[in-house]
Design brief:
The complex is a heterodimer. Chain A is of the alpha+beta class. In chain A, about 30% of the residues lie in helices and about 25% in strands. Chain A has one domain: Glutaredoxin, CATH 3.40.30.10. Chain A is globular and about 35 Å long. Chain B has 2 domains: about 230 residues, Rossmann fold (3-Layer(aba) Sandwich), CATH 3.40.50.300; about 240 residues, Rossmann fold. Chain B contains 17 helices and 23 strands. Chain B has a 9-stranded mixed sheet, sandwiched between helices. The longest helix of chain B has 18 residues. The radius of gyration of chain B is 28 Å and the shape is elongated. Classes of the chains: A alpha+beta, B alpha/beta. β5 of chain A pairs parallel with β6 of chain B.
Chain lengths: ~100, ~475
């Protein structure tokens, strides 16, 4: 991935994201950091991010069908998508969220 | 010895009839157990029964985590077995969690773990104080994930965690090519592995169960047939048991007074087994019906397995020779169970016999004819089955009478069913038809009667509306001549 000076992304609709993490595990911390950075750098204001600790909300894990941790759920715009991992590969994350860079 | 073993090795009773016997008390307590087999072999049902029985019979709440079927489907599927899952859930005795994995929705971006499953399980277990857990079947996760290596190590961690948590867990797995499970779960579950099998031989299906491995415990090593019916799974232990059943010195009537007289003590020993052999039309069923009648008259329950006639047909035919069994059917002293031999496999027949005998608790059991079963099994199978059946009857002190059809009246030693039973039966009566003096002569011979002296002569007999009448050969001859002269 080429490191350009924060290229802008094409975002037609505001993204609604939920990040599910498990406590203070290294993977969770990495995931939070990576997602926050990615959103701030590329999405500017076009996102809404909620971070949920499934240790503290075990029932939510069942309700939201969380199997893997960390999990990032993009509930809007449709289609719904679940990304798992620590999101270190930001290109894959962006692709996974269904958005593209401006050319 | 059994007690000693349970002390050494704590076990969790499965509540599945037969399975606790062959595992010497159940599954290893607090450990994971792998139940594997091909699709449709009864894995989910076995697991569900383990949970439900745990709740209803052993007061151990349970958690069912399903990776394949939704909670609604599962509840519906087991409803026919009388399991009311919704009620158990409402009573906080059961927790069910459906884990849905949609491959198209998941994108892997870096490292992750299975904490979601851990947390969901932990929450469910702690919420109701569960002692039993089922994961059905965790291998479904592999289909949604590319990083199989990561998943493997997480599954290994999950099993260890469940062990540390002290819950007895059934993990189901689909049978793979050349391995017990598709993704090698058996590598991680080393304590107890159960294999279920569903085979069709000669168009007859039989389910079988085998304990592949049970660390730290003795267990039966055979393949055990099992049955799925309206009461769930029941497993039939094959090789029973020791030759140490109690015997009775009490005498019971054969139901035919003149036949009683041929035995020194006027009848059979109680709890004994009798074989009646003969070719077609030699009155085997009539003799069996008399035996049933005598038991009914003693107010003792009779279970009559008829493999050739329907109950109505049997009742009608017996009425023609003066045996009225109808009142006893009405008063439930006599139960006639008719089924086609080819309806199911031999083992299934045996299981059905077992179950009926268990629930009905008869004092007398009649199998008419046992030779019908021979058509559906191989030699060794039939013999093994008959041995087991006789064993079971002896242990329960049930009077047994088997009839067997022989094809060659002279040389019936080579007949399979006769060969199988004759050495095991306590009493053996041979009946035959002969053409004599331009008439058919019925004759009867007691081949053996264990522990009792008996007549060594061949006796002729006639069947009238009043029943069977035995007489010495000469008397019968005279009678026939008289009839002819009229």
């Amino acid at each position: 991935m080429k490191k350009k000076s924060t290229p802008e992304l094409i975002v037609h609709e505001k993204l609604t994201l939920q990040l599910y993490v498990s406590g203070m595990s290294p993977k969770s911390m990495e995931a939070i950091e990576n997602i926050k950075r990615l959103c701030d750098e590329h999405l500017k204001e076009a996102f809404e991010l909620e971070i949920i600790d499934i240790y503290k909300n075990p029932e939510v894990a069942s309700q939201q069908q969380i199997v893997f941790s960390p999990s990032l759920i993009k509930s809007l715009p449709l289609p719904k998508k679940t990304l798992v991992g620590n999101f270190s590969d930001s290109e894959k994350v962006i692709k996974g969220l269904g958005i593209a860079f401006k050319k | 010895m059994k007690q000693q073993q349970t002390k050494l090795f704590p076990k969790t009773a499965t509540g599945i009839s037969g399975l606790d016997e062959i595992t010497g008390g159940g599954f290893p307590k607090g450990r994971p157990i792998l139940v594997c087999g091909s699709a449709g072999c009864g894995k989910t049902l076995l697991a569900m029964q383990f949970l439900v029985k745990g709740i209803t019979e052993y007061n151990e709440p349970g958690v069912f985590m399903s990776f394949e079927e939704t909670i609604k489907d599962l509840s519906q599927n087991v409803q026919s077995l009388g399991f009311n899952l919704e009620k158990l859930v409402a009573d906080n005795r059961l927790r069910m969690d459906y884990v849905r994995i949609e491959k198209s929705e998941i994108e892997e971006t870096g490292e992750y773990d299975l904490e979601g499953i851990f947390i969901r399980l932990n929450h469910a277990i702690d919420a109701i104080g569960a002692k039993r857990v089922v994961l059905d079947t965790i291998e479904a996760l592999f289909s949604g994930i590319e990083n199989a290596g990561l998943l493997r190590s997480e599954i290994r961690r999950l099993f260890q965690w469940l062990k540390d948590k002290g819950v007895t867990t059934i993990i189901t797995g689909e049978r793979g090519e050349g391995s017990l499970t598709r993704h090698g779960l058996e590598e991680y579950v080393s304590d107890c592995v159960i294999l279920l099998d569903f085979r069709v031989i000669d168009q007859i299906a039989t389910r079988r169960l085998r304990i592949v491995k049970y660390r730290g415990s003795t267990h039966g090593t055979n393949e055990y047939p099992f049955l799925i019916d309206e009461n769930g799974i029941s497993v039939l232990p094959i090789t029973s048991l020791k030759l140490d059943h109690a015997v009775s010195a009490e005498i019971i009537s054969t139901g035919i007074p003149s036949l009683d007289k041929l035995f020194k003590r006027n009848g059979f020993y109680k709890g004994g087994s009798t074989l009646v052999t003969g070719s077609a039309g030699t009155a085997k069923t009539t003799i069996a019906a008399y035996f049933a009648l005598s038991s009914c008259k003693r107010k003792e329950r009779v279970l009559y397995f008829s493999f050739e006639e329907s109950p109505d047909q049997l009742l009608r035919n017996m009425l023609a020779v003066g045996i009225n069994l109808k009142p006893y059917v009405k008063s439930k002293l006599l139960t006639i169970h008719s089924s086609r031999p080819s309806l199911q496999g031999l083992e299934m027949h045996l299981l059905v016999l077992h179950k009926l005998i268990d629930s009905y608790k008869p004092k007398t059991v009649i199998v008419d004819p046992i030779s019908s079963l021979v058509t559906i099994g191989s030699n060794s199978e039939v013999r093994a089955m008959l041995v087991r059946l006789l064993d079971m009857l002896k242990i329960n002190e049930i009077n047994a009478m088997f009839t067997a059809l022989t094809h060659q009246p002279i040389n019936d030693y080579i007949d399979l069913s006769v060969d199988a039973v004759s050495s095991l039966a306590d009493t053996w009566i041979k009946v035959r038809n002969e053409e004599q003096y331009e008439n058919r002569m019925r004759s009867l011979l007691i081949v053996k009667s264990r522990g009792m002296s008996h007549s060594n002569n061949s006796w002729n007999f006639i069947i009238t509306e009043k029943g069977i009448q035995l007489m010495p050969a000469t008397a019968a001859k005279n009678m026939n001549e008289n009839q002819n002269n009229k």
